[in-house]
Amino acid sequence: MHPRIEDYALIGDEQTAALVGTDGSVDWLCLPRFDSAACFAKLLGDEDNGHWRIAPKGAERCTRRAYRRDTLVLDTEWETAGGTIRVTDFMPQRDRAPDLVRVVEGLRGEVTVHSALRLRFDYGSVVPWMRRTDGHRVAVAGPDSVWLRSEPEVRTWGHDYATHSEFTVAAGEKVAFVLTWHPSHEPRPAQIDPYEALRHSVADWRAWAARCRYDGPYRDAVVRSLITLKALTYKPTGGIVAAPTTSLPEEPGGVRNWDYRYCWLRDSTLTLGALLAAGYLEEAEAWRDWLLRAVAGSPADLQIMYGLAGERRLPESELPWLSGFDESTPVRIGNDAVNQLQLDVFGEVMDTLSLARKAGLPNKPQMWQLQRSLMRFLRTVWRRPDEGLWEVRGGRRHFVHSKVMVWVAADRAVRTLEAHPELEGDPAAWRALREEVHREVCERGYDPERNTFTQSYGSRELDAALLFIPRVGFLPPDDPRVLGTIDAVAKELTRDGLVRRYSTEDPVDGLPGSEGTFLVCSFWLADALHMTGRTEEAEKLFARLVGLANDVGLLAEEYDPVAGRQLGNFPQAFSHIGLVHTALALFGDERAG
């Protein structure tokens, strides 16, 4: 059977990440960065596209697995007729070079273990030249070089363009493998002590998790989500990738397969709010600073997403040699949505910087100048149709959520001046913009017959993003139009109680096929229910959503309630941000919005 998305666990070093399956195989790893070409791409193809499996000889799925408490260190155990072993997988925070460490430990009896390493650079398309030197196996192809060693050294041989090892471990014995990447034109980096690295990794993650100030129900799920967000952070810049993967399908066998290894502005306010509320001020400041650097320049050039360091060019292409996850093609790298107009990002940037200022993050001298520049430009473009929050490829429309976020931009600008009258600005113009947008949305984006706001002007379709209307303060939670919209979304956009982004029967997104329910949208519904006094319903929905996480607490982008499986890129930052935010709203000191 083909692995399911939820069969995978995440390990990483805050610069890249790997996915490890329940069969002990590392099927996805991009080196040296999240957005680099993969050297293990079996996730999107087959074994010949690269993987590294360590497991008892002849065994298939593991018996059990779990992260060590409050860490990103993964323990996977197999019970066999001859005994029990544990494989511990982790990536230590790097000094210079990225390392993948896999420690095999005998727990009971005696077990024969097999390791099969197939390195395939450039997304599974390049077979490297392998050689042996000083007890190491060295793979080289073009710019990439990888070294493999074990402690103690075990018998290793090459066969079928793969590197194999086979050895026996008894109770109390250990064998550690270390895989290290470096540019092929540079000398081999210094070797790490795998056991010392393991001790440091466990201690570092637990110290970081201990900073979480949330102590309410579902704390384990909240901490796991925060650890996942930390793991998706590119430490050198503070940017947070939407997911560490590309092209995991929103519909098995379908074409809705996108590259999410970049940083989206749409996530900015929610990410900052979750980090601040949970007590992670340093990470929140790093994300704010990444945002300021990324959007610096002409407001006309503002993009919806950027690379890990703020790169602007993310050209989209297809990899035809990969068969796709569960035969879902095309496999894409890059993302052409980077060229879309999405007016909501102006509101998200303004809201994020407003939140940062209110939270007391150290001010940046250029921050208000940037905000003023964004507002000047927004006043000239806000009437245009756009592709909207969901990056539709079926043509521009006047999306209601986009206009609401234009209102947010004007509102936050006005409120900032009211709180800081020493700042320069144009409060009269911004108040006028705020009033005009509010009036237009209520007139053109509201369906009085059905008592609901709609996805776009003149449309009868709904959109889960409408749940943001009370959250951002556009209307109060008890407004009849808000209550009607929440009821309409819950009635018309849910499947088995979980929320879809929008109806895919309407050609708004320009794509064939359908998709699963969108997990973060379901968290938004829980938030909206709570804000309108339906807290018991919100808590039930939240409990169900937490229960959809896989056995190690990870959530993908979407969920298919009929097939009972996760869909989309994995793990998804947006989903875990939603979990943290809703937990804090329901059970913490902070409140949604």
Automatic annotation (TrEMBL):
One of its GO terms (molecular function) is alpha,alpha-trehalase activity. Pfam families: Glyco_hydro_15, TREH_N. Signal peptide: none annotated. InterPro entries: 6-hairpin_glycosidase_sf, 6hp_glycosidase-like_sf, GH15-like, Trehalase-like_N. Residues 3-150 form the Trehalase-like N-terminal domain. Transmembrane segments: none annotated. Residues 216-583 form the GH15-like domain. Its EC number is 3.2.1.28. Its cofactor is phosphate. This is Trehalase.
